[in-house]
Amino acid sequence: MQNILLQDLYLFIHFHSSRMHVRPLRHLRHFHGPFCSSWTRFRPFFTLPTISTTSSIYPYRNKPHFHAKSPKNRRGISTDIICHLRDVGVTIPGGKTLFDNLGMNFIRGAKIGILGSNGSGKSTLLKIIAGVRSDFDGDRWIKDETRVGYLPQEPVLDPSKTVYENIMDGLTQCQSLMSDFDRISAEMGEPDADFDRLLEEQGELQERIDQLGCWELSHEIDRAMQALRVPPKESSVVTLSGGERRRVALCRLLLEKPDILLLDEPTNHLDATSVAWLEAYLMNYKGTVIAVTHDRYFLDNVVGWILELDRGKTFAYEGNYSKWLEQKQNRLNTQQKSDIVRSKQIAKELEWTRAHQGNKKGNKARTRKLESMDATRQSRITEGQIVIPSGPRLGTKVIRVCNVSKRIPENNRILFEKVNFEVSPNSIVGIVGGNGTGKSTLLKVIAGIEEPDEGFVELGKTVSLGVVSQTRDELHSRKTVYETISQDNDIVELEGGERMHARAYIAAFNLRGPMQERYVATLSGGERNRVHLAQMLLGGHNVILLDEPTNDLDMETLRSLETALAETFEGVALVISHDRYFLDRICTHIIAFEDGKVRFFDGNYSEYERSRSSKKK
């Protein structure tokens, strides 16, 4: 090659690559001297390939539906397709068919959200794609050399390793590539080195290292751990809570950067700041993302397709969640009268979404007189929607928190101190903040489960307090759904002397028909949460404390719960939630744990965020 020696090229590469792990071959064009005039002759060798990021998903019923312009391989499958399901069917114990003859193609770079009621097969579908479930009919095909990563609802970590070691377990490919790169660099220093072979190997390695972003791996690990609020690196995973374990597993999976990223409820146990970071990360993710989630702002910001599982059938919609609402409403309008209730719920949410597009003004309706409450409540009972039985009528004094402080006994760390606020009648208060800041502890102090270290909590004389925790410890696995909720009472007493059958009350939580005779032990996470909610809300309380009530809920139950809290419940609710959409729809006030302080804000979540942003400016 004219004007350049291979030894000169090696010296340049070796100087820029040893230990620093910069991108040596990318910087060749900046090398001064005889090499510059020969760059155009090297350029074809060093040019990186272009990766297709076509965002498409093509579901079908009875036969494959391929893109007409996509090239096909010998099997007749589009080369842009990286995952292919054909005639997939799943039947669970008891004879229920989740889906039958399901088929779809997933295209490289697509961002897909999966919706459906609890028990419809969303998590099962992810497991089939991930290859961790084999007891199904039909075929699953994954393109050669395609890496699939899967975040289950209950991820498995190595208990013998620390947080950092578990994260590094997912980065073995990067570690191997960097080790090979260092080995080749060392071999180039040998007198009898085969430079042609070594340069070719190093070029191939660099392509892969660039694609996976391995050059700055250490910094990327630190950024991801900080953004997701992962516990300290040296922590043992044995001591972690369920939410902390999920954050470790999510961090590991994101850093692994698989070609297909399968996420089952990825925003659970993440605070709003972490969710915002995750959204930005996934929006720029080059691989295919398939997520099961109830977080509607997440679905609006990240996905380009919605795949709905509805009573054994699949429906694909192009667009985000807001677009899905419109298309779903159009489809329901053409169906039978049995879908009237669901259509009304979606129409109401669509109306709210359009009215609050952009500025997302808060829901102040609850602070006005509830003149039509009785009529609305009776309508919801008739239509089979969630009804929260109210307790005695509240007086003017509800909750007063005065100079309350709380520390962690083990290390004396201050969770919060000198907290003061007062909750008035007709309030729905959302509680937000980072993980581990003391939100659940504050609810326990208000409920009298834990004592404050300083200060006091005063409840009004008419307050009847109910608590819905996120542990679900109250559920008995050997009882049926009906036995668990009804407690052997066939009639549910509601406010104002109204009565309804326990089966109708339970059905309002989307636990209908044969579902009520299933044992709790056989239920999915979302189904267990619905049973827990129905059980705990039955007490007839006028003040309820809810700790992450939306986790694992399907959209239908979530919408019904929102409407019940915001429009028909006559009492007061304090709700811990990371679901921003949920908080925007129901809240009149926000209690925010921020920067070591607790702030009481008048307005919903989006209004609080705007206020917070304006103060930072």
UniProtKB/TrEMBL annotation:
<dbReference type="InterPro" id="IPR003439">
    <property type="entry name" value="ABC_transporter-like_ATP-bd"/>
</dbReference>
<dbReference type="Pfam" id="PF12848">
    <property type="entry name" value="ABC_tran_Xtn"/>
</dbReference>
<dbReference type="Pfam" id="PF00005">
    <property type="entry name" value="ABC_tran"/>
</dbReference>
<keyword id="KW-0378">Hydrolase</keyword>
<keyword id="KW-0694">RNA-binding</keyword>
<dbReference type="InterPro" id="IPR017871">
    <property type="entry name" value="ABC_transporter-like_CS"/>
</dbReference>
<keyword id="KW-0810">Translation regulation</keyword>
<dbReference type="InterPro" id="IPR003593">
    <property type="entry name" value="AAA+_ATPase"/>
</dbReference>
<dbReference type="GO" id="GO:0000049">
    <property type="term" value="F:tRNA binding"/>
</dbReference>
<dbReference type="GO" id="GO:0019843">
    <property type="term" value="F:rRNA binding"/>
</dbReference>
<keyword id="KW-0067">ATP-binding</keyword>
<keyword id="KW-0648">Protein biosynthesis</keyword>
<feature type="region of interest" description="Disordered">
    <location>
        <begin position="356"/>
        <end position="375"/>
    </location>
</feature>
<protein>
    <submittedName>
        <fullName>ATPbinding Cassette (ABC) Superfamily putative</fullName>
    </submittedName>
</protein>
<feature type="domain" description="ABC transporter">
    <location>
        <begin position="399"/>
        <end position="617"/>
    </location>
</feature>
<feature type="domain" description="ABC transporter">
    <location>
        <begin position="83"/>
        <end position="336"/>
    </location>
</feature>
<keyword id="KW-0820">tRNA-binding</keyword>
<keyword id="KW-0963">Cytoplasm</keyword>
<dbReference type="GO" id="GO:0045900">
    <property type="term" value="P:negative regulation of translational elongation"/>
</dbReference>
<dbReference type="InterPro" id="IPR027417">
    <property type="entry name" value="P-loop_NTPase"/>
</dbReference>
<dbReference type="InterPro" id="IPR032781">
    <property type="entry name" value="ABC_tran_Xtn"/>
</dbReference>
<dbReference type="InterPro" id="IPR022374">
    <property type="entry name" value="EttA"/>
</dbReference>
<keyword id="KW-0699">rRNA-binding</keyword>
<keyword id="KW-0547">Nucleotide-binding</keyword>
<dbReference type="GO" id="GO:0006412">
    <property type="term" value="P:translation"/>
</dbReference>
<feature type="compositionally biased region" description="Basic residues">
    <location>
        <begin position="357"/>
        <end position="367"/>
    </location>
</feature>
<comment type="similarity">
    <text>Belongs to the ABC transporter superfamily. ABCF family. Translational throttle EttA subfamily.</text>
</comment>
<keyword id="KW-0677">Repeat</keyword>
<dbReference type="GO" id="GO:0016887">
    <property type="term" value="F:ATP hydrolysis activity"/>
</dbReference>
<dbReference type="GO" id="GO:0005524">
    <property type="term" value="F:ATP binding"/>
</dbReference>
